[in-house]
Amino acid sequence: MSSSSALSSAVRKIKWHVLPLFVVMFIVNYIDRVNIGFVRQHLSADLGIGAAAYGLGAGLFFVSYAVFEVPSNMLMQRFGAKAWLTRIMITWGLAATGMAFVQGETSFYAMRLLLGAAEAGFFPGVVFYFTQWLPRDERGKAMAVFLSGSALASVFSGPISGGLMLIQGGGLHGWQWMFIIEGLASVVLAGFVWFWLDSKPRDAKWLTRDEQEAIVGEIEDEQRRRDAAHVKKPSSWSLLRDPQILIFCLIYFSVSLTIYGATFWLPSIIRKMGHLNDFQVGLFNSIPWLISIVAMYLFAALAARFKFQQAWVACVLLIAAGGMYAAGLGGPVSSFIAICFAAIGFKAASSLFWPIPQGYLDARIAAPVLALINSIGNLGGFVAPATFGFLEQKTGSITGGLTGLAAMSVLAAGVVFLARVAPRERPGGAALRAGVQK
User: Fold this and answer.
1) DSSP 424
2) Is position 177 within any domain?
3) How far is it, in rounded angstroms, from Cα 97 to Cα 308?
4) What residue numbers bound the domain in which 384 lies?
5) Neighbour tally for 37: CB within 10 Å
6) Distance between CA 388 and CA 381 in Å, rounded?
7) What sequence ranges are listed for the domain Major facilitator superfamily (MFS) profile (predicted)?
8) pTM score > 0.70 for this model?
């Protein structure tokens, strides 16, 4: 088998072997993270947790997530993806199950912090996994497939969570059964991950020796070409002083603001549309995310065909801005329609963004820096729900929050043109690369 044929065969096998599993993992991960959006009304009625406390608790998840994200990803490099991703799934599943037993605001805050710490490292761990298993040209498409898991989770989480909340018995409320069943599902899935996943291509018995050597050789060649353009391996601390990292964090922060602002408050907007039960709210909640899945694949295909990653990210951010601004202008029905439009933009922006820092970063220190970008960016998941909760409790409206989200998306659309998709070469780098390739 020729090296090119072996590489193509390896890439095809890797995608079929790991991508479906990662999508399923992301679905259960996302459900356990955002399912509190469906129980807000019940938390208020049963535990006295008001809008401001709910918003703060929803956002506190992202504080501990940010604190533990980089250390978790560094530990994954030490212990391997198989062991560490399995550990992450078990601990987040147990923490998600524990949400069923909160008694008030304090325990609610504590469990959300614990859940964030448990989940930390999952997303950037998978992103780093792709850098070790797939050539650069394949990572963007793999990311689009992986990120579809969050959109699929948003589609499925409504009907699933709404249906589980109809369960009664055992001295527990329906919302408690929802947390228990969805959390334990993650623990069960962790067992499958342990038996299915491999840490490195050379550990994969489902690849032939030629396929293993081809994929490892391609990844190593990419690193050699990068080495030719750099004097030495950059340190993680030096990259913290790189303005590009700040730009990446700002862009992803803006994307996360909009995603989680919509995620945690959309069920409340839907409830205002009429007399709907939990299951019906869940069905309506799935509509914007179903639309966004189509948009993610469409824009990923357009970006792959018509090169200019920054322009595509800016385009979808402006779509998100228009939708979120319009959501604050009318009643519940028009707001719901506007968020359906906004979802086209902010979910596509999430998938189109990641190939930019992946292409810029040196693979040798990519893991902790990707984790840093993800953790700081995800602090938008703290700011958005906490701000929305405060605004609703103080003013009875979240219109100001929606306008703010629109403004941030417009700002990010401009900033994205400052982001580089490849590192700036030192003088003579092109000639050195040519020598490497000979």
Assistant:
1) P
2) yes
3) 43
4) 14-203+222-437
5) 24
6) 11
7) 18-426
8) yes
